Amino acid sequence: MLEGKAMVEDSDMPVKMQMQAMSFASQALDLFDVFDCKSIAGHIKKEFDERYGSGWQCVVGSNFGCFFTHSKGTFIYFQLETLKFLIFKGASTP
What keywords sit in the KW lines (predicted)? Predict the structure, then answer.
């Protein structure tokens, strides 16, 4: 678990939640093949939905682009081993 150090590239999450995100990512890498990004992302999303309520999104891969709006305090983008992880909770509209 967390054999390779995770490197946070950007985040507005509380530190405790960041640590949980990296822990869930490490667990997913232990459970799934590194090329099965869809299952890795699904595992992380499920864990976040269970712990912090529904509405979380997770993108995992080595090369992707994105544009999104997120709720304050719910965003992290980090690298672990060869993969990049983007986790956020979508912003609600009034």
Answer: Cytoplasm, Cytoskeleton, Dynein, Microtubule, Motor protein
